[in-house]
């Protein structure tokens, strides 16, 4: 039995500009952050796929530990989930990932998968994408399957669709490739930002929300009043392009102002929350150059620019 551990980690993210509009083909500017998910895989002595999850931020009552079990029959290459679909408490994306990878190999190894995340879930920091990228990278490597970064990213995008419905793909892309990116319609470029003496502070409102719900909310509003909401998305799109140029030139005051404008437009789009506005106001008092919600909204985090 192989006693080596296979370990990959993947970062969470913040959206600096352009959330929601990016779902409709407009650009977004996004950055990886230094909170990560680590996936550690060891060979199990049982003929099973086992999963355990630990998180600094596990907010649910029960740990998901060992809930995703497949019995593997190595002779006929069959694997069967132990839990019925209706009784599964583990995120369905993990089943998708495990089944897809087991179907790609004839390896006789049985993985014990441990996911360890520093990224709080449900607050817009890209935890689900980071989890998917880390698990796909580790499990494919453990099973001796070679995936290019492009294949890994596409695979993670499929997993993201299971959780979020119709995401833009920005979260999995920044988690796969890292850095600060300009992202539009599944294409990205990394931005080399000048070394400016600023900090982005991330403030967690503590309000957990569901990204899928807010993507659907905007889709419903677009159907109800396409003219009004298309116009807001277009304004966010233009703002994002201007913000990109401010970022590349290191114009921090302009950047802060554009963050303020983006926050107001997200409120108009219907994804704000009064507590987020209160946070934006208090950060103003502390001398912030500009703050905005980040991610799907309705709660989650505020990002704030400080000199
Ligand atoms: C994702 O973190 C934020 C949204 O723009 C959805 C997406 O891009 O998939 C709201």
Task: Provide tags for this entry.
single chain; 307 residues; Ribosomal Protein S5, domain 2; 2 domains; 8-stranded mixed beta sheet; elongated; binds (R)-mevalonate
Give the arrangement of secondary structure elements.
Blueprint: E1 6-17, E2 28-43, E3 48-55, E4 70-73, E5 78-81, H1 92-102, E6 111-117, H2 127-142, H3 149-164, H4 170-177, E7 180-184, E8 187-190, E9 199-204, H5 211-224, H6 226-249, H7 252-268, H8 274-285, E10 290-294, E11 301-306
Parallel strand pairs: 3-6
Antiparallel strand pairs: 1-2, 2-6, 2-7, 3-4, 4-5, 7-8, 9-11, 10-11
Helix pairs in contact: 1-2, 1-3, 2-3, 2-4, 3-4, 5-6, 6-7
Bound molecules: (R)-mevalonate (MEV).
(R)-mevalonate is lined by residues 15, 19-20, 22-23, 124, 164, 167-168, 170-171, 211, 215, 295-296.
